[in-house]
Amino acid sequence: MREAWVAGVRRHFPGEPMWAHVASWDETPGWERFAGSVVFDLVHQFIVAGSGGAALLTREQKGQFVAACWTAQVRYHVADPKPGQVADWGERPVWERETWADVFEAVELFVARHPDPWTPMRVPVVRARRAATRGAVVAAVRTPDGEPVVHCQVSPRALTPARVQSIALFSGPSGRATWSLEPGTYVLVARGRNDWGRWVRGESAEVAVSAGERLTVDIVVREEDDGGDAGGGGGR
Which residue ranges form the domains of the chain, and what is each CATH number? Predict the structure, then answer.
């Protein structure tokens, strides 16, 4: 997606673009790389689930969808975003709107070249087959005092060879998020903001996942800059 964005900026920007707009993937901040991966997944799933309907959208509608996905990520990752980073669609410059539409169409091309089995007709069948070969892991995200933490991004880190989807999951009202994972050994990582807007993070203990098994792991999150061990928990 970054390549599509840079190509669009170079195509539509009037004059010489800022370095930040055309920096390579490796040169962009970590949160932007993470956000870009999430947006790609959201657009990809939107196109696949539409079964061809996305092709009937106007370029403006395509660009609006990508821009909305990106703005949501900016709101999550940036405590005090600049007005231009979260501006409404009509307030964004023409070059940016055209670039977002280019990004959508680049993902469309990717989907056309890489057919995805997750079509609406096959989703129930694929899910049933995957469920039989995977295990479920429930991440219970909480504070050191035991209070549930809502809206933390929860992601697994595979310690053994395994395929893990890159889309983000968030802890719900009870502080929980459920992953369906291939058999293997994982550590689950949670990151989000507390009520004071400070970043918190935590990791679970290693958890061994078996097909057909359901486990719950605790993740205790602490402020990232407190100098303590931002992790803890175990499987049960």
Answer: 2-113 (no CATH), 124-223 (2.60.40.1120)
